[in-house]
């Protein structure tokens, strides 16, 4: 998109997001809330993958940590807002601790290590009495902030949007700052960035922790909205969903995270409706999901390797008025669009 059109796109996206809870039905609002919470997680993961060059297959683990943190604090009859505030902090702290050894790994080794972390946490949570075991924690009270109780779907939809707005604001400010320039250099080449004075290890750990904090905040909202958390609420497949959202939307872009979360969430809802039709086997929704994930990844890698939003943005820039070369045809040496990750 040309720079003049970006504010208009941002205003349109914000207006649509704010109007959606007022226009959607009671059966559609839960899907919308799940979509927005997924966008919260994917925004952080997109920054992690697009700038730090790290792939995490365990992002749902931090989502789970945030949910359990909010639930445990609230069930202890402490202020519910304290549970929501603590959820991103605890998730980020856990990520900072485990990230020190994990981020020494690279590529598929790091991806499988984060996946192992989620499997270990799921196993531990399912065996502990204080977490409710496999049954989980039920009866999580409604969130109350400054005397206002979030009691219906529309209230939680706007709460999820507020969380997403905060995450987008933080992400944009970071990308536009001096550390953000260091992250862009890191995405291009770790060796070149380090030789230029960028503290590569510290930046990677910071982005890893920040993305975990975003997931933890989304998990806190999830716990209050649904009123329970259990290991089954945070399956391994959920982490793969987040990865697919980033790849489809475009890593390193905020709009890509939003687009990827929207496309995949709506597609999953459609597949779930098909899989639960009469006569379909019980495993049909899961099987369909895995099949579609594989197909989408193949198609995106082949035809849109940069993701949906960067591809569409590049096409839009190329279709603009071309610069003439004298009186003849347009020169083939026109400047090509920047292919580095952007913040929008």
UniProtKB/TrEMBL annotation:
InterPro entries: ABC_transp_permease, LivM-like. GO terms for molecular function: branched-chain amino acid transmembrane transporter activity. GO terms for cellular component: plasma membrane. Pfam families: BPD_transp_2 (PF02653). It is a multi-pass membrane protein. Residues 320-344 are annotated as: Disordered. Keywords: Cell membrane, Membrane, Transmembrane, Transmembrane helix. The chain crosses the membrane at residues 34-52, 81-103, 110-126, 155-175, 205-230, 242-270, 282-304. It is found in: Cell membrane. This is Branched-chain amino acid transport system permease protein. It comes from Thermomonospora cellulosilytica.
